[in-house]
Amino acid sequence: MRMVWHDLLFMHWKVDADQLRQHLPASLRLDTYDGQAWIGIVPFRMSGVSLRWLPDIPWFSRFPELNVRTYVIGPDGRPGVWFYSLEATNPIAVRGARWLYHLQYMDADIRLEKEKGCDCGSWIQYESTRTHRGEPTADLKVEYRPIGPAYKAEKLTLLDWLTCRYSLFSADKKGQLFRGDIVHEPWSLRDAQAIIHHNTMTEGIGVNLPEESPLLHFSSCTKVIAGAIRKV
Fold first, then answer.
1. Which residues are within 8 A (CB) of 134 and not within 5 positions of it... i.e. 6 or more apart?
2. Structural domains for the chain
3. pLDDT band at residue 55 under the 50/70/90 scheme
4. Is 105 exposed, middle or buried (CB count within 10 Å of its CB: 0-12, 13-18, 19+)?
5. What is the distance between the alpha carbons of residues 198 and 139, in angstroms, rounded to a whole number?
6. Are 149 and 190 in contact (CB under 8 A)?
7. What is the pTM of this model?
8. Across residues 21-25, what is the average pLDDT?
9. Which pLDDT value is given to residue 16?
């Protein structure tokens, strides 16, 4: 698959490692940085979503997305991402990803509006309400914008550890573990500001977010190639 990620906000909180482990397959090891576990909530929008050899499909290739993630190490020793949930407005994409990638994609009503004006610091209003039948409710309402110049994460830093992940792990109903790899240029990141009006995205998995403000980073545009998943 190919896709482009736009107006992406990384929100990261320090959390209790035991709360995160409860929802991980036994074959995955929770990854930590200096002994600390982290959870991320990432709103963004996508365009150009399609198989690599097909053109864009107008009603399919553009939609907003929201994911809740933590960081893991697979039994093969490869670091990667585990998604607790992924929300999207495209019902075909949701069902295709659940079937093909065994990911916890869910239907959601998502509204994203970008303030008109200079792209260098425009506020983005993002509001998501989960609508997937049979799943716990989850909502996010946040306003965010980039500030300051763009930069790359320095190797071996916390920011590098949080963002430079090129594999995802998933599991089917039988517990079989899968891994999918992605390719993209190193993140062009900026610091960010955010006003979080409402956030219940982690309540369904029993993870309590701390009162302190999250780490915030913004990326305006990243082109991505995603490979097929394989059994681990």
1. none
2. 2-231 (2.40.400.10)
3. confident
4. buried
5. 7
6. yes
7. 0.95
8. 95
9. 97
Q: What's the Cα-to-Cα distance from 232 to each of 25, 97, 133, 136, 170, rounded to whole Å?
A: 12, 18, 30, 29, 10
Per-residue model confidence as pLDDT tens digits over 144-159: 999 999 999 999 999 9
Burial class (CB in 10 A: 0-12, 13-18, 19+), 213: exposed
Q: CA 146, CA 218: separation in Å to the nearest integer?
A: 6
The C-alpha angle with vertex 106 and arms to 42 and 64, in degrees rounded to 5, equals: 45
Residues 6+ apart with CB under 8 A from 173: none
48 φψ region: left (φ > 0), alpha (ψ -120 to 50), beta (else): left
Look at residue 121 in the predicted model and tell me its pLDDT.
84
Give the mean pLDDT of 36-62. Answer: 89
pLDDT band of 58, cuts 50, 70, 90: confident
Decide if pLDDT at 57 tops 80: no
